[in-house]
Amino acid sequence: SSSTVRGFRARIGSEAFQVLANSTPMYSIGPKTSQTLAEIGARDIRESEVSDLEGLSDYIRRTQSEPGT
User: Which of 2, 11, 22, 68 has the fewest CB atoms found within 10 Å of its own CB?
Assistant: First the structure.
């Protein structure tokens, strides 16, 4: 949902969010972002206490490399 994106952006900061959107094609601002965050589990991101872009990148890589996800 857009509220998920807003909360996520607030958590990592607008600048980091923009960097992520610009540097990683599969994470673009808009509906696609919302869908992608839902797919990898926005709740899991919050629970993992990701607080910066590096931590987010690591989290995403771990999540996507897990079999069966």
Answer: 68
